[in-house]
Amino acid sequence: MAFNIRALARPCLGLMELSMAPRTQIMRSLDLPKDYVNLRLRASLSSSARSGVPGINSNVNTIASVLEKWESKFTDEGISEPKDSIRNIVLHVMGGQSFSELDRHAQVEMTQEELQETDRLCECRLARMPVQYIIGEWEFRDMRLKMIPPVFIPRPETEELVSLGLSCLPHGNECDNCSISADCHVNVLEVGSGCGAVSLGLMKGHPKVYCTAVDQSTTACKLTQENAIAHGFAKRVNVIHAKLAEDGTFNRPLGHDTFDLIISNPPYVPSKDMLVLQPEIKLYEDLRALDGGVDGLRLIKPLIQVAGKLLRHKAKLLMEVDPSHPEAIQKWISEEAQAHLCLRYEATHQDFSHKARYVQLVKVKKA
């Protein structure tokens, strides 16, 4: 039986309010002990410990059986990554921290409340809602970040973008202006912060980094701020609700005249390719964070113009792009009309699938 995805999607968006509440709040709403959520997977429960409890059938209510049932249903309905989807959902419901806990406690019997919650969240997955939105959080570089629709979900490529960004930053006495080993800050501009993953990853990986995180979405700005507070980076990030125009200007001041790195995962999907995106993306994520216009360069070119104006000498611009873009960007940046930007195309980096995914430009002196 095929599901009506759009019909299922509507109620799931409303139901997420409870799902994304703190786990202790959910447990209180179910009238369970305060520390219940932490005990369920941490206690070494045997199936005999729950035998004879009314309403419990160990053949169908164990973690293992629930995982098997929903993985099969997800597979039948064409849900991507069916095994990881249900494991993440059950782990969230049971209050666990890693998949290994599910394996160790596979014969633990789930309560009726846990089964109902699992079913509710799985119905949302059948509606193609991304797991990150369903459980309301996601692991990123050893940080558990809050996630809410429609803010863009960080991908594995985003983690690589952070790693490349860290390699572009000055360390020790590498800064041209002064020694950053003292009180000097490394100023980073992130354009399109989303949930704040990139800025937080850079601050976590470099103790001197201070970020200016810009996004055109008020929801994204709020989420970036919340995640920064949750992980202790609130004093090192300035979140600005601003929009980058196609002439390379922002509609609000950024607070700095120059930056040591400008980094971005801008909208780069060519408009024609938007039609073939997965339902998980088309139904739930902010398409403004994806649609890069006819050639995918609609905001990439303005970003390059921003870099020409705001990067200090030898500082870098690092962007995630479509694999078709590196050649087009190299050609565009070499044209005489862009000579005033004083930028040199420095490198193309591949992602984990060996696709040309990142471009790196450097600020140079005027000839």
Report on this model:
- A seven-stranded mixed beta sheet has the order 5-4-3-6-7-9-8, with helices on both faces. A two-stranded antiparallel sheet has the order 1-2.
- β8 (343-350) and β9 form a beta hairpin.
- The chain is α/β, with parallel strands linked by helices.
- The chain folds into two domains: 61-127; 151-172 and 184-363, Rossmann fold.
- The protein contains 15 helices and nine strands.
- 38% of the residues are buried.
Provide a compact summary of the structure.
The chain is α/β, with parallel strands linked by helices.
Features:
disordered N terminus; two-stranded antiparallel ribbon; methyltransferase; Rossmann fold; 39% helix; 367 residues; 2 domains; elongated; peptide chain release factor N(5)-glutamine methyltransferase activity; 15 helices; alpha/beta; 16% strand
Write the layout of secondary structure elements.
Layout: H1 5-19, H2 23-29, H3 36-39, H4 58-61, H5 63-76, H6 82-94, H7 99-104, H8 112-126, H9 131-135, E1 137-140, E2 143-146, H10 156-168, E3 186-191, H11 197-205, E4 209-215, H12 218-230, E5 237-241, E6 259-264, H13 279-284, H14 300-310, E7 311-320, H15 325-333, E8 343-350, E9 356-363
Parallel strand pairs: 3-4, 3-6, 4-5, 6-7
Antiparallel strand pairs: 1-2, 7-9, 8-9
Helix pairs in contact: 1-8, 5-6, 6-8, 10-11
InterPro entries: DNA_methylase_N6_adenine_CS, HemK-like, N5-glutamine_MTase, PrmC_N, SAM-dependent_MTases_sf, Small_mtfrase_dom
Protein name: peptide chain release factor N(5)-glutamine methyltransferase
Catalytic activity: L-glutaminyl-[peptide chain release factor] + S-adenosyl-L-methionine = N(5)-methyl-L-glutaminyl-[peptide chain release factor] + S-adenosyl-L-homocysteine + H(+)
